[in-house]
Specification:
48% helix, alpha/beta, binds adenosine monophosphate, 9 helices
Length: 209
């Protein structure tokens, strides 16, 4: 299956994408995670991307399209994949079409802006890609990752003033993708719930798995 998860930052795309990835045995690909890794290791792409991510802006289309093109060419994508955080603009969606990618479903997880702001303030992440929430999805000891044991951190771009810009970018630039995929007849909507497992139940139902 080829699946896209759409939704505002903090809507739970990454968490649900990881669960569906394990269930279906296909990779979950997060452009945000690839960019954060490049920033951490100081590659040329990472150095270019940093100023955008830190202010909550989008990294230019040609950069992320290049990242996705390279990633989808890897052998683990041949039986399907989940895209978490790509596409985020109509030109990115058109580039995916131009690559010949035939999507099965685009699932939008809907959460109100006020709930997003609350969720972002409690988000804790691990460098392995796992994501937690201090109240809704805490790790066992609250400070280390359940999967790999590394200490959890707060994403720099989860600072309240950056979250506000990210939400604005989402509504102005990414939300129009819902219409783009609705017109293709492949858009499904899931209302994000407070509890991760409740959103998972709705997500699996919408995907028919
Ligand atoms: P995320 O982890 O998906 O919230 O992404 C973190 C940041 O990486 C975003 O705020 C953007 O600056 C950048 N980014 C991730 N995916 C994309 C994309 N598809 N297009 C442009 N920028 C992106």
């Amino acid at each position: 299956m080829k699946i896209i998860f759409l939704g505002a930052p903090g809507a739970g795309k990454g968490t649900q994408a990881e669960i569906v990835s394990e269930r279906l045995g296909i990779p979950s690909i997060s452009t945000g995670a690839i960019i954060r890794e490049a920033i951490k290791t100081g590659t040329e792409m990472g150095m270019k991307a940093r100023k955008y991510t830190e202010s909550g802006a989008l990294v230019p289309d040609e950069v992320v399209i290049g990242i996705i093109q390279e990633r989808l060419a890897k052998p683990d994508c041949k039986n399907g994949f989940i895209l978490d955080g790509f596409p985020r603009t109509v030109p990115q969606a058109e580039a995916l079409d131009a690559m010949g990618v035939k999507l099965d479903v685009v699932l939008s997880i809907e959460v109100s802006d006020s709930a997003i702001v609350e969720r972002m303030s409690g988000r804790r992440v691990c460098e392995c890609g796992a994501s937690y929430h201090t109240k809704y999805n805490p790790s066992k000891d609250g400070v280390h990752c359940d999967k790999c044991g590394k200490p959890l951190t707060i994403r720099r771009d989860d600072a309240p003033e950056v979250v506000e810009s990210r939400l604005k970018v989402y509504h102005e630039t990414t939300e129009p993708l819902k219409e783009f995929y609705a017109a293709k007849g492949i858009l499904k909507i899931v209302e994000g719930q407070e509890r991760v497992e409740d959103t998972t139940a709705l997500t699996l139902g919408a995907l028919g798995i």
